[in-house]
Specification:
Blueprint: E1 2-5, E2 11-14, E3 23-31, E4 34-35, E5 39-40, E6 45-47, E7 50-53, E8 56-61, E9 64-69, E10 80-90, E11 93-101, E12 111-118, E13 124-126, E14 129-131, E15 142-152, E16 154-161, E17 165-166, E18 170-174, E19 185-197
Antiparallel strand pairs: 1-2, 3-4, 3-7, 3-19, 5-8, 6-7, 8-9, 9-18, 10-11, 10-19, 11-15, 12-14, 12-16, 13-15, 16-17, 16-18
């Protein structure tokens, strides 16, 4: 919102839009191999099977959420996590895999890391950073793993690129809640496809 003061001393309220039109996206989410229902958090909405949003959207599903950076779809200037899997080695020790997409162009610009971090104050993660030591120009998307991750609670899996840092789409899962609690393995993957503008 922008306020303008006019000569008479009255204040006029002018609503200024973001200038970005809402877009419809096809969205499918799989958890542990099965397609699941999802809900959009405001200001994004769900219309039937479509996600309607502008630049970013948060989408929830049983056991987690997606934090989507929609304006970068197709370009992948940011590093996006498209899927994640985990294997539980013991109570709080895991191997995580992340499938990352980024328009790596070479040594000057590439996805150089992904990490698993605590997503809530009562969660904990140690040894969650996986450095990626070279570009993946001809391997997109690519999947890499981080072993020996100590984790408890709700975690975010996010990727970083050498130029822009973090900011691409991320996946959040609650390791201690259904459908992940007590499982030896778990997985989340999604596909999002832009359609005609609203």
């Amino acid at each position: 919102m922008t306020y303008f003061k006019i000569l008479t001393g009255l204040t006029v309220l002018l609503l200024v839009g973001s200038g970005v039109a809402q877009q419809r996206y096809g969205l499918e989410i799989e958890v542990n191999g099965d397609e699941v229902a999802w809900q959009a958090e405001e200001p994004a909405t769900k219309q039937g099977r479509w996600l309607v949003a502008e630049e970013r959207a948060v989408v929830t599903f049983v056991g987690g959420r997606l934090e989507l950076t929609l304006t970068d779809l197709g370009r992948y200037d940011l590093a996006h996590v498209l899927a994640t899997e985990f294997e539980r080695q013991n109570d709080d020790r895991y191997t995580f895999r992340a499938t990352v997409r980024h328009h790596d162009t070479g040594w000057d610009e590439y996805a150089d890391a992904f990490r698993i971090v605590a997503a809530t104050p009562d969660s904990r993660v140690d040894n969650g950073l996986r450095e990626l030591l070279h570009p993946h120009v001809d391997e997109q998307p690519f999947t890499r793993s981080q072993t020996g991750v100590s984790a408890h609670g709700t975690v975010r899996v996010e990727a970083r690129d050498l130029v822009d840092g973090y900011g691409g789409s991320a996946i959040v899962i609650d390791l201690d809640a259904p459908p992940f609690a007590g499982r030896e393995t778990g997985a989340v993957r999604y596909t999002v496809t832009p359609t005609a503008p609203e």
